[in-house]
Design brief:
Organism: Polycladospora coralii
Shape: rod-shaped
Helix content: 40-55%
CATH superfamily of the largest domain: Bira Bifunctional Protein, Domain 2
Radius of gyration: 44 Å
Cofactor: Mg(2+)
Structural class: alpha+beta
Strand content: 15-25%
Protein name: Phenylalanine--tRNA ligase alpha subunit
InterPro entries: aa-tRNA-synth_II, aa-tRNA-synth_II/BPL/LPL, Phe-tRNA-synth_IIc_asu, Phe-tRNA_ligase_II_N, Phe_tRNA_ligase_alpha1_bac, Phenylalanyl-tRNA_Synthase, tRNA-bd_arm
Distance between the termini: 91 Å
Order of helices and strands: HHHHHEEHEEHEEHEEEHEHH
CATH architecture of the largest domain: 2-Layer Sandwich
Strand order of the largest sheet: 1-5-6-10-9-8-7
Keywords: Aminoacyl-tRNA synthetase, ATP-binding, Cytoplasm, Ligase, Magnesium, Metal-binding, Nucleotide-binding, Protein biosynthesis
Largest sheet: 7 strands, mixed
């Protein structure tokens, strides 16, 4: 039996030291020291030994167990350390290497332009009003002095949903809604930004949908000269203090007199940037303002047109393509 114990120890030592896998090492522990292991099997034979030999045999058996347990612990520790070192080498990170750059987004040039225009007019005391993009014929046309069959409706070929509902062709409808809600109270000083829609062929300078910011001032003693001053201040803040601006007579059903506003471009000459005029007395009367007491002016700015001039864009469609090569140019705007 003593020989069996020494043979078992030698065999276990060899097997443990040659094992390079923690799972296999744990299987060896069960094999040699488990309840049904080889050491237990040898110890069961101690019952057949003479009584005087049993203490000595028990002592040797405990020494063998201790040696095997120690070998198992040392080998497991060594294997765990080797596994950790291997993982550290695989996951090694050089903190001195440059980081991976992250693309940082920015506001779309149209949104930037809307915010810039809003900031300019807010700085002149205007508030911001909004309204629905799906509008009634009443608010989009009739309340603006454009009754049915009016020939000027052809100027704004529209997307109708049904005979009385359409996609708004301008944000003037927001002006009417605001005046109606004010119930004849003054002053009114607002801008109305938003999308508008017209049946148009898309090309380098036209789009079936575009962004408009309209302005409205209604109060006592509002004059054409005040309109001129507000628009010139806007042009200076948008294009620089040296900008030249002129007003040309025009026609809009909801303003009288009406004007087109041009600025001078060194390379392109005079360029139209917006339409404006004094609010027609009939429009004021329809929403509860006495035209004998109150006057007002209105104007409409095409945001895309301003962006094209400001950023020297040659095709309006570029503003809607989401081409990152184009949009990246405006990160510093």
């Amino acid at each position: 039996m003593l020989e069996k114990l020494h043979t078992l120890q030698a065999e276990a030592e060899t097997a443990i030291l040659e094992t390079n896998d923690i799972t296999a090492l744990r299987d060896l522990k069960v094999k040699y020291l488990g309840k049904k292991g080889e050491l237990t099997s040898i110890l069961r034979g101690m019952g057949g030994l003479p009584a005087e030999e049993r203490p000595q045999m028990g002592k040797v058996a405990n020494e063998v167990r201790g040696v095997i347990e120690s070998l198992l612990i040392d080998r497991e520790t060594a294997l765990e350390e080797a596994e950790l070192e291997e993982r550290l080498q695989l996951e090694k990170l050089d903190v001195t290497l440059p980081g991976i750059s992250q693309e940082i987004g920015t506001a779309h040039p149209l949104n930037s332009m809307i915010e810039k225009i809003e900031d300019i007019f807010i700085g002149m005391g205007f508030g911001v009003a909004e309204g629905p993009e799906v509008e009634t014929d009443q608010y989009n046309f009739e309340a603006l002095n454009l009754p049915k069959e009016h020939p000027a409706r052809d100027m704004q070929d529209s997307f109708y949903i049904n005979p009385e509902m359409l996609l708004r062709t301008h944000t003037s409808s927001v002006q009417i809604r605001t005046l109606e809600a004010k119930k004849g109270e003054a002053p009114v000083r607002i801008i109305c930004p938003g999308k508008v829609y017209r049946r148009d062929d898309d090309d380098a300078t036209h789009s079936h949908q575009f962004t408009q910011i309209e302005g409205l001032v209604v109060d006592q003693n509002v004059s054409m000269s005040e309109l001129n001053g507000v628009l010139f201040a806007f042009a200076q803040k948008m294009f620089g203090a040296g900008i030249e601006m002129r007003l040309r007579p025009s026609f809009f059903p909801f303003t009288e007199p009406s004007v087109e506003v041009d600025i001078y471009h060194p390379e392109k000459g005079w360029i139209e940037i917006l339409g404006a005029g004094m609010v027609h007395p009939d429009v004021l009367a329809r929403v509860g303002y006495d035209p004998e007491v109150y006057t007002g002016f209105a104007f409409g700015v095409g945001v895309e047109r301003i962006a094209i001039l400001k950023y020297d864009i040659d095709d309006i469609r570029q503003l809607y393509t989401n081409d990152l090569r184009f949009l990246d140019q405006f990160k510093s705007v």
